[in-house]
Specification:
Length: 388
């Protein structure tokens, strides 16, 4: 019996889905059993992969950790254990840059079993009550809507340190209009970042102050719980809250707003499934990775178990979309045009410490230029310490 241990994160989209898929896989694959542990969303976003690879065979990871994992030799390159045709099909079937986010230094370090980006979320019943059929597509429209919300209705924007910086980067990518070079070892280009920070601060002035303590799961749980939270203009998409069978009020999703209404520049999220280099069951682990990321599983049992697939076949399947409240069709354009964060070994530390520094200044109501300047100081110091 080959027993594999996996680490995901504590949500139905994470560990819940993987446990269900693994149980079904084990029934069809004699001699293989997979168990899963879970960590919090915060730990998923902040804990280095090398620390997990010493204990687990399978690791659900975020793509910015690819460079760190490669530097630590923590993962098995999937191109050495899976047929080239399998990986080629995964890349062809990818949504947006999901697959490419795990490509680094000539190797493929994880399969994009899940893909996400920052989109918007809303309560259709509450917006309809004030005569709004759909959320705005432009930031000017968003600001107008937020300013006009009547007493008793609130909006939220996940803005704990990690997600505050994520939103700033989305707004920077939109401000840059597809141009490259606005984020590097010295930080953010002020010509791009200061206007983006101005927009972010204007949004925060109009949403519930609890936003500064909130992550995407907290925001969506609040909306679904039937509270007066009617809108989140920037939030990572979570398919679970759109499903008709999800308990609570119906939450719907839409493309990310932008300066011109075109859904581009949103920060890429999602989850890759990787194989630990310390595993004693590499072949079995790799076979499971190929199964989970395959189109048949993705549009079938993966979606049914509450997963958010990384497969275009699943995202464009009418039955899967209907079962998930139209989530896939409503947000596909945003994910297809998503922005991929840096993946070098230093960047995860930059995001953690830079996010904390930005959060502190935003809480102090600092000027946009001061916020950008402080992030750049943190970023430049970390890259300098790393000799870059």
């Amino acid at each position: 019996m080959t027993v594999l241990k996996g680490m995901a994160w504590s949500h139905q989209r994470g560990v819940g889905c993987l446990r269900a898929v693994s149980d079904a896989y084990a029934r069809r694959t004699p001699g293989v059993r997979i168990t899963w542990d879970a960590r919090s969303l915060r730990d998923f976003e902040d804990v280095p992969i090398a620390a997990l690879a010493a204990e687990y065979d399978l690791i659900a990871m975020d793509h910015p950790y690819v460079g760190q994992a490669h530097a630590a030799a923590a993962l098995v390159p999937l191109d050495t254990v899976l047929p080239a045709a399998v990986l080629a099909e995964q890349r062809r079937d990818a949504v947006g840059p999901g697959y490419d986010g795990y490509t680094w230094a000539g190797g493929q370090w994880a399969a994009a079993m899940d893909v996400a980006a920052q989109v918007s979320a809303y309560r259709p019943d509450l917006l309809a009550g004030i005569g709004v059929d759909a959320p705005p597509r432009s930031w000017d429209g968003v600001l107008d809507l937020l300013a006009s919300l009547p007493p008793g209705l609130r909006a939220v924007l996940p803005a704990n340190p990690t997600h505050l910086l994520a939103s700033l980067l989305t707004l920077c990518a939109q401000q840059a209009g597809g141009a490259a070079g606005w984020l590097g070892p010295r930080g953010l280009d002020p010509e791009v970042a200061v206007p983006a920070a101005e927009r972010l601060l204007a949004l925060l002035d109009l949403v519930d102050p609890v936003s500064l303590r909130t992550d995407p799961i907290g925001a969506l749980e609040s909306m679904s719980a039937g509270t007066a939270v009617c809108y989140a203009p920037i939030v990572f998409g979570y398919v679970n809250y759109a499903r008709p069978d999800h308990p609570g009020a119906a939450v719907r999703f839409a493309d990310i707003p932008s300066p011109d209404g075109a859904p581009a520049g949103s920060l890429l999220g999602g989850v890759g499934l990787a194989v630990s280099a310390a595993s004693t069951g590499v072949a079995a682990a790799a076979e499971f990775v190929a199964h989970v990321a395959g189109a048949d599983c993705q549009r079938g049992e993966y979606v049914r178990a509450g997963g958010q697939p990384g497969s275009r076949t699943a995202w464009t399947d009418p039955e899967a979309d209907a079962a998930c409240g139209g989530f896939f069709g409503a947000t596909l354009a945003t994910v297809d045009r998503a922005y991929v964060r840096p993946r070098d070994p230093v960047y995860p530390v930059v995001h953690r410490r830079g996010g904390a520094a930005v959060h502190e200044l935003v809480r102090q109501r600092a000027e946009p230029a001061a916020v950008v300047r402080r992030f750049n100081e943190v970023c430049a110091a970390l890259y300098a310490d790393a000799g870059r």
